[in-house]
Every structure is written in C-alpha cells, then in structure tokens.
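re the bet — no i am not wrong, look at it urself. input seq straight from the record:
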Amino acid sequence: MSINCSSSTCAPRHISVVNFQSISSVQKKLLIRFYFQIRSNPHPPPHDPSSSATKMMIQPMLAGKRVLLALGALATLTLSYADGFAAGLTGDQTQRCTQERYQKMVGYNCADLKLKEIPQYLKSGLLILDVSFNRIRDLKRQSFSRYTDVKYLYLFENMIQNIEEGTFSELTNLEALDLSNNALRTIPLEIFRLSLLRNLYVAYNKLEDLEEDLLQLQKPIEAPLQILSLAECWLERLPNFGILPDLWQLNISSNPMKDLTIDQFAPMCNLRSLDLNATRIPQCACQTITAELSTRRTVIYNSHPNCFAEHTACNQDTSTVPPTSPGPDEYQQCMDVRYARQQDSEAKTAWFKISLGVIACIVLFSIILCYIHRRNARNMKDHRKKHNTIKNPTPINRIMVPSEDDTPKVVENGNRDKLINDCD
C-alpha cells in the first residue's frame, strides 16, 4: 500500500486486501486515522469557491470518493483482523518447526519463529536442531533433556543470557555447538567436558567473566576441540583452556588483544589457521607471533601489513631482552600428547594388522584341514568299496532254474539195455 501525504490530508493511493502478516501496525494506524478523519470532516472546502456550479459538481464526487475509500479501508481492516484471528487459532500449526534430513540425519529447522524457549514436541531421536534467530533468553536443565542424541546444535542470534548448570551435561553426543550473537558473559564450563565436542562457536558475546571462570576449569579439558571461534568477544588476551592438541583453527578477530603474546599459543601445538583481523595487537608482539607461528606452518589472516614486515625498531628493542620461549612446558606437553596419541594409533594399527594376519592364517589352516579331511574321507570310502568287492565276489544264485539241457531225455529201450549191462 502506497500513501501520498500532503499538508492537510493523508490519502492512500491504492488499497488492496492483503494478508494479516503483510500489514504492519503503522499501516493499520494510518488506515484507522484516515477513517476517523473522514468521519470528522466529510465535506472539505471545494477547490474553486467562487463557482457555485463547480461546487455543486465536485462536492458529491468528493463525498462519494471518500465514502468508497472509507469503506475500502474498513473492509481491509476487517479482513486483516479476521485473518489475524484465524492465524491466532492455528498459530500452533503455522509456527511449528519443520523436519528436514541431511545426509540421512533427522533434523528440525526452528529458525526465526520468535520462540522464547526450546520446543518440546519434536522427535527425541533428532540429530540436528536449529533454533537460531529467536527470542530465547534462558536455557534450563530441561531444555534439552528430551534430545540427548543431538549432534549439531545451533543457538546463534538469540538473547541468551543465563544458562542453568547441567543444561549441556547430558548431550554426550554433541559434536558442534553455536552460541554466537547472544548476551553471554562466560562459557559454561560443562561444555568443555563433552567428550565428542569438536566445533565451538561463541563469537559476538561480551565474555567479561570468562577469564575468571576458567580458573575453576579442570585441565586438560575432555573436549577434543578442533575449531574455536572467539571473534569480537572483548578479549584482551587469549583465554587459557589448557593444552589443546587437536585445535587447528582459531578465530580471535575483532578483539582488542592488547596483551597477546606468543606464550599464549603454546598449548596449541597443532594450530594451522589463525584469524587476527581487526585486532589491536602491538606491532612488535604481532611480528613475533607471526614469525614464530610461521615456523609451525600456521596460516595467519591479518589485514595489518606491519605484522608481516621486519622493522629494525622492534629488533633493536628486543635485542637487549632475552628471547621469550613459546611456553616450553605447555608446548612440550601438547607435543607429548600428540606423540602419545600417534604411538597409540600406530600400535593399534599394528595390532590390527597382526590380528588380521593371525585370523587369515587360522582361516587358511582351517581350509587346508577341511580339504585334507574331505580327501581322506573320499579315499577311505573308495578303499572300503574295493575291499568289499574282493572279499565278497559275485554271489551264487541259489535258486535253480531248470534249463533246456537239464530236462531228462526219453531214450528208447533204455531200461532194458541197463538191465542187460548189469547182468553182464
């Protein structure tokens, strides 16, 4: 709806029946104001008061036009409030989260629904939960009690100020957590006890109490952090999380970092990417950090050109001061942990190969034994057949079947000749 305003009146140029969600409160107020303004002044002065004919022609036209506009405004408001009432009745349906799938994982998209708490009507077996761009202020212990299988949790762009103790302790499968753009003053220490947490984003929070709370953190932490984002968190120095042997990407951009030194990077012996943009690190400290981390093959992102240049002033200032070692104890501990893990991994790989070799030998030996057994069984069977054939020849047919040769022949004078022969 476009509105053309003059010094005395404010007349809508075009009024259309729109949905309740598309009309703002300011437009509704303008429509109501225009409606009551017409009712209070139905007959404004004509354009040409000297002409009575013009007055008689224009006044009915203006009155009819204002009546039509008033009716249109009233109809628009009526339909808008009717749609709003219908939307209020079905608010539970239109504001519900949408189920999505990503790489065979069930997830829910609850972003930008103006939620004030974590919805509890979702499936308990979800793995991805996006509750970003809402109005959540507090997280309670029961907020995620139904979703203990969640792996990826996105809570950025909310108003989270308070997180009750134990809120994340049951999320043992959590791998990525995003708490950026909230009103946090610290990071809950229970997050660092999640044994599978790899990615943590806490950027754009004023973490004023973090350094003090980290004094109570049990070190080394259990979370195998690989990516950590602390951009624009009002930090003067790098927080001490203990040794982080798995951390390879760190973002501390847009922080003052006036007290940043190379020693604070000692627990991060595997650091491969560092973002220092928009920081106010002293020039000499920045050059020292850049030079030292470059020897560790760390890629540094920094828009300040002086951090990458060698200045004789810094060299002269540091020539009389003994060079600071990059935290030998913590750095060596970090390297020892990585070396132990590497040795453990190699040992597991070796034992796995040995086990596979033993299993393969056992299977091969079993196959050979099975083949020999079957061959021997077949030979024994053939031997028994031959032995039975020699011991028991072809059986005699004991049933006498008379043949043609066995039939007695009738001989003439046979008995007489026999008697004669006997007498002789």
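see?? The chain has eight helices and 14 strands. told u. also The first helix runs from residue 25 to 40. so pay up
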